[in-house]
Amino acid sequence: MNKFITILIIICVIAIGVSMWLPRALADRFGPTLADGTPGFARGHISSAGPGMPSGGSFRNVAPGPGGLVRGTPFTPEGPAPVRTEKTPEEKEKDRKLMEESEKHRRKWEEESRKRIEEANIKSGMEIPEKYFTLPSYPDSKGRTAYIRRLASTGRLPHAGGTVRLGTYPQKTETPEPIEWEIVERFSDDTVMVISKYVLECVPFHDGDGMPANWTECSLRRWLNSEFFNTAFSGDDKQRILTADVRDVPATSRSAEFLKDKVFLLCDDEVMAIYPDIVERRRCVATRHARDAGVITDKKTGYGCWFISGTRVSLGEGVDPKGWTGPMDQSQFGLRYAGVRPAMWIKLK
Predict the structure, then answer these.
(1) Which SS3 state, helix, strand or coil, does residue 341 take?
(2) What is the per-residue DSSP string for 97-148?
(3) What does the pLDDT look like over 251-263, one tens digit per residue?
(4) Is 135 exposed, middle or buried (0-12, 13-18, 19+ CB in 10 A)?
(5) CA proximity to 76, closest of 27, 130, 25, 35
């Protein structure tokens, strides 16, 4: 009995030893081997291809994905397969074209927005020159509108430059001499606005009692369009002088309509538009005739004060010998002894 038990124990020991040795022997003989020489089965990898698994000894460094699905980077005995990060030339070119197209649309949108704003500003600004700039009466409505649009868009009357002679008036002596006019604006090739190059005369702004309510009632306006107009110009000269649409100053409900004048004074809007930020250009020498008549002048330079018709809210302003604009002295001294620089719209031919 004891001998039988001993044999049975030996058989069990041999069976246990074989069961432990046989799988390793089979792996060494038939299983995949990794780069370091370790049998593939010893690392827990599966040699046969299964669903979603590469064959031929390839393995996956797996990680669970959404829904429990297994996702991973391809794995080889040499290590993980390289991941491409740099774009191909074709992809780069595609990206470049997309960026150019996007920039093109952005610039187009900005330009259209700028034009819309500019057009709106011009339309709203057209009221200014229509109300406060002196324009020739005769042009057709289309030409007049185009001209006003240009004034509104630039905000100034461009100083055209050049001079022209028209009419005669006492200057160096009491003998009449040709009057020289500065061309300060062009409506067209042969239609220009002019202002006398020199202060020609000393005439009170208003010779009545006190100040008039507006330019319409001012005695200086009457003098310009009667005595000066008839004295300075011959019949042929008068044919070249255009009737101008002059807005009254200060602007009131009574002055909604244009005043129809041949000769006028610049208003402050026109002075600032013709001579923007250039006080030196506003200075004007008074003729000897005007100085003898009493025009206030700078004795060193010969520059004299000269009237402007006024502003939108006040009457009786002027430009001093230094070129600054502002209210004249409201005493009879200031309103009586400034000079006159007539302005007109004329035909050159």
Answers:
(1) coil
(2) HHHHHHHHHHHHHHHHHHHHHHHHHHHHHTHHHHHHS-EES-S-HHHHHHHH
(3) 654 555 678 999 9
(4) buried
(5) 35
Residue type for position 33:
T
Tell me, what's the pLDDT at 107?
86
Fill in the amino acid letter for 118.
E
Higher-confidence residue: 280 or 340?
A: 340
Q: How many CA atoms lie within 13 A of 46 on its CB side?
A: 11
Name every residue whose Cβ is closer than 8 Å to that of residue 141 and which is 6 or more positions away in sequence. Answer: none
What pairing do the DSSP bridges indicate for beta strands 325-327 and 315-319? antiparallel
How far is residue 346 from each of residues 29, 103, 192, 242, measured CA to CA in Å? Answer: 117, 51, 6, 5
**Pairing verdict, β 315-319 and 306-310:** antiparallel
Q: Which helix (H) or strand (E) holds 20?
A: helix 2-30
Please answer whether residues 133 and 157 qualify as being in contact, where contact means their C-beta atoms are separated by less than 8 angstroms. yes
What CA–CA distance (Å, rounded) separates 189 from 63? 85
Residue with structure tokens 């909604």?
A: 256
User: In 3D, which of 237, 319, 206 has the Cα closest to residue 270?
Assistant: 319
What kind and span of H or E run contains 219?
helix 219-223
- CA dihedral 116→185→282→286, nearest 10 degrees, is -160
Q: Which residue has the tokens 């006003």?
A: 148
User: For residue 239, what are the CA distances in angstroms to 229, 248, 348?
Assistant: 12, 25, 11
CB atoms within 10 A of CB 201: 24
Model confidence pLDDT, tens digit, residues 30-69? 555 444 444 444 444 434 444 444 444 443 444 444 444 4
Contacts of 321 (CB under 8 A, 6+ apart): 283, 296, 297, 298, 301, 303, 304, 305
- In terms of Cβ atoms closer than 10 Å to its own Cβ (0-12, 13-18, 19+), residue 115 is exposed
Helix (H, G, I), strand (E, B) or coil at 95: helix
- More confident: 204 or 4: 204
Diameter of the chain by CA atoms?
170
Residue bearing tokens 């604009």: 325
